[in-house]
Amino acid sequence: MKFAKIFFPSLFVLALFVTACKSDEEETTVELNDFSEQAETDDELISEYLQTHTYNYEDFQDPSLEDREISIDTLAGNNANKTPLSEFVSFTEVAVTTPEGEEINHKLYYLIARQGIRTGDRATIVDSVYLAYKGTLLDGSKFDESAFPVWFDNTAVITGFRHGVQYFAPGNFTQNTNGSIEFSDFGQGLIFIPSGLGYYANAQSSIPAYSPLIFSLNVYTTNQADHDADGILSFDEDVDGDGDPFNDDTDGDGIANFADIDDDGDGVYTINEYDTDGDGIPDDTDGDGIPDYLDNE
After folding, report:
1. pLDDT for 18-32, tens place per residue?
2. Options 3.30.70.1400, 3.40.50.300, 3.40.50.1100, 3.10.50.40; which CATH number does 3-223 get?
3. pTM here?
């Protein structure tokens, strides 16, 4: 088993809200490319990369090895006969809405080198994750890294990161008498993000515009979030059930329900009209089939 030993005084306190790249980096905006064309270009670049590169998958086939870290290399020389990344990855499609209101699907690739043992505790796109990571470009240059684990609020990171992290389960942990935490059997893998799910035309200090990104992850543990403290988990405020709480805004005030203390805009806080009788069922005072906290009448 692999162990990560760190000191963390309160495991379930969200210690840090950060983006996948440092927030104080200078941004430069360039002319916008056509979103659909750029999505195709990025997918071609990532597909080529997946076909011409491999990783140390042998290390992850032996559970007796402890300190395993993902290492990517080209399919050349001693690696010429190895299996390419393309044979290991899965993908999902994530829609991005353009300024003109058009939805463009982007392919997000992910590779699970080792799945965490707590498969039922995978974070949703609005939960928090405690992980270590490294971010690189397709040319191998590193733009960001945290070798020591940090908390990420998935609502505050780039789209591709939060959608990719949800496929990795966390591991087990024990707390020692000195306050340090030991993790074992945690999820490890890679996410390949097209620029449309990253920074797109907004160049960062070490990320050129329109750059696909690669993140290597060790996912240690997760925490379910209730961003507006209304007693409803943020993911459960996905009213339309499409898996994306970001597009649920019942009162149309521009604030998604998971961050809105008054979901229906009737002047009564959601926490005060969600389940006042405590029976575990959302109240529906007028019996119209719409829970009170979503019913402004």
Report:
1. 344 444 444 455 788
2. 3.10.50.40
3. 0.86
